[in-house]
Specification:
The protein has 290 residues and is mainly alpha-helical. The protein has 4 helices and 8 strands; from the N terminus they run αββαβββββαβα. It folds into 2 domains: 6-162, no CATH class; 163-224. Residues 190-221, 274-290 have a biased composition (Basic and acidic residues).
Length: 290
Amino acid sequence: MGNDGGSIVKSDIIKKKKKDEILNKSDLDESRWFRCTLLQDQLVDPIVADDLGNLFNKENIIQALLDGSLATHPQFSHIRSLRSLHNVHFIDNPSYQHGDKKKSRWYCPITKNEVGGHQIRFKLLPSCGHAISDRAFSIIDTNNCFICSKPFIKDDIITLNPSPQELLIIKQKLIDKKKKKNNNNNRKQQQKEKEIKKEEEEKETQVQEKEIKKEQEKKEENEEETTSTTTTSTTSTTSTTSTDTTFKKKRKETEPLETSNESNQFENTTTTTDIDKLAKKKIKEEIKKD
């Protein structure tokens, strides 16, 4: 049985299948790393990536957003604007020559790993846009970009062209992150509403305090006016009384003088009358003698 050539044919089939798989993976790598995920044209600067690690030509995305054609791709429904994307800066490989299929156009300057294979993972730092080999993170433990030294947050790092298994994990993380963000936004909104309500209450309290103070001042002014009027009236009455008293006193002082004058006048009048009588009497006596 084993000498009829059947085993050789089976072996050739297996080898051909493996070769086809390798070619398919190579084509897949070429498509994912060097072609725009949206239109499958050659990747050229400026390049952007979404949160799922897909690579795009920025111009293609802008045009698709403008003409609405992006809505026809449900797998990209999470891209609503350019803010949903991150700039990507690959480092040019100095060993690459145009048309060289054995060398990659880009590489990691830290590990010298070239971009393009499915075995070497590359990660994107959204804060600066540099794409760095996954191995570099195990070599250098830092929170600053290995190329430009710009700080980054490890939880924000994006895996470029992840495997299907990695993609599932990434999607779940994004869902959890979105829920957390919504919760934070809700808390912020509630806090903001509380602050606004507190400010309104404080303003209302201030207005009430001003009104109360104004009423109090008005009341005090009225009381002062009443007190002033009463004082003026009392002073007037006192003045009148004093004037009357003074007048009466002067009256009393002048009355005896008037009485005395009248008496003197009476006495003077009486004396004059008596003298006249005596004179007349004396004249009569002289006449009788004659």
